[in-house]
Amino acid sequence: MARLGSKRINGVLGVFYLQFALFFILLVIYSFLRIGFYFYNKALFPQVDGPEFLSILWGGVKFDIAALLYINALYILLQSLPWPWKFSKWWQKIIKVVFVVFNAIGIALNLVDFLYYPFTLKRTTGTLFAQFANESNWGTLALNFFMDYWFMVLFFIVLVWCLVKIYDLFIILGESKGWRYYFIHTLATVFIAFLFIGGVRGGWAHSTRPITISNAGDYVSVPEHMSIVVNTPFSILRTLKATQLEKLSYFTEDELQKEYSVIHLPVDTADFDPKNVVVLILESFAKEHVGALNKDIQNGEYKGYTPFLDSLIDNAYTFKYTYANGRKSIDALPSIFSGIPSIGEPFVLSIYSSNRTTSLPQLLLNKGYSTAFYHGAPNGSMGFSAYAKLAGFEYYFGKDEYANDKDFDGIWGIWDEPFMQFMASSIDTLRQPFFAGFFSLSSHHPFKVPKKYQGKFPKGPLPVQEPIGYTDNALRRFFQRAKSSSWYDNTLFVICADHATVSHLPEYQNTQGAYAIPIVFYYPGGDKELVGMQQKVVQQIDILPTVLNFLNYPEPYFAFGFDAFRQEDNFSIVNNDGIFTMFYDSYVYTHDGNRGLSLFDLQSDPLSQNNIIGEDKSRDQLLERKLMLFRQQYNNRMLNNELLTN
């Protein structure tokens, strides 16, 4: 049997009662530590008000659950399995030690950040071990720490002592034999496993991805407050495999500012022109699928799968070489809205995700725009709602706001066509000028279309191409609806994909094809001519500076990208498994960080079969120099948290 004081419970169920009781107590302790962390560093969080603090406490529970499940995974396993010796005193003492030691470490890590946060302005991450790996004076450092912060050490001892005393209130007794013992244990263990999976992921929905530090944005008003929401064990565990950038010093500051400045200054004395802006991000719309961008394919016979987008491109402005800055949906939003590419890993999953950043919606919000983001998935999916809030979107419209499950596709969210009609109606209610962002979802695995559209769109050799046709038709219906609105003629539309996908055409079965997407600027108003195709490289991170300069934005701003409309040689850089790929003019250049590996000229070699690296030393040196300029700006600004103009 198990008892708490004089209360007796069945032995098998008592073990699970113990786990739930202890877990609840740990959640209380972690909430207490969160409150302590805030008040200890209160001067660093002057903008936190009462409602936001309550939101932080509520949101923090989700991160505490995940962290505590990770920390107590061994304890839960040892306590849950139906060992024959389960109720023996020696076994329960071992399990108690496991529980106390692991949770003492978790408490200690949280307390350390009470003191360490003012120096880093972020929770400690998995790079802590690398930062101190070469220190030989651990003993001296520890002694000095204990002496300087004796009160924190005392607080730690008191908390651990309380944890031990609370554990000792529970006494596990019982018999571990018979079929009933094993049957009940098996059922309870399966239930615990189910709860464990949901807890560490942050939910059980198909669209739910394991929560990361960036999800804390759902509960705060500015990125700096995310450190209150998360806890230190979670921050460390979620970044153990994260990439730590190295500081680079290839160039002087003067050289960086002259050759690749990331601080953009107004170049036009014209007045700010606050036009509406709508950014439409289309899931998996690789450039390969767009007929208008592949007129030289298959002797000019290639039609593609996007007839409406093709017709729009004929009256819009685009570019010969257009690329995504990553290969995942999660890479797209920071690239498009904040001008920050993913180099090696998604920015929102990196240890730098809590850096202070700028964003297109935030900059325009500050200029009097209303801002809204639309995505038909369940709210919270992919962490989009968290990012949208931090990026300055006032309103978020997802599956919850759509509130009609008859249009649910059964997996990802609301079908694109009805959701885009909902978006058009919603935009009608926004105060002008407005900035609206949209992310489609139907052209995604398992590549289905609504029943009424089955057989209506060409299937093609790739499964994604039928739903591509469906979403293209949804786009057509959106523009039909938008044309009747008063805001339409005064709106700049930006259309791009989140990333490329599996390819079929030989011209895209190479490095450039892995990132080639459409990037289209369409302005139906007559006061600015915006039609044609420019022979240059443009990438997702160029959208922010291009839009701001189109509006004659009057203030300096930060962005790694370029203004696509200017007559300058842009370049685009991506990183996959440590290999850098740079797109410059018609060239595709790869580099391992130390030396160039390959160079192809898409103009004369569209299938990338002839490696010309080494044939022109001056050209190779130019490409390597541009790559290193980018790397130094990117690395050092990430490390120093310098992603703003000041």
UniProtKB/TrEMBL annotation:
It comes from the Bacteria. It holds the Pfam family Sulfatase. Its main location: membrane. Mn(2+) binds at residues 283, 498-499. Keywords: Cell membrane, Hydrolase, Manganese, Membrane, Metal-binding, Transmembrane, Transmembrane helix. It is a multi-pass membrane protein. This is Sulfatase-like hydrolase/transferase. It comes from Candidatus Sphingobacterium stercoripullorum.
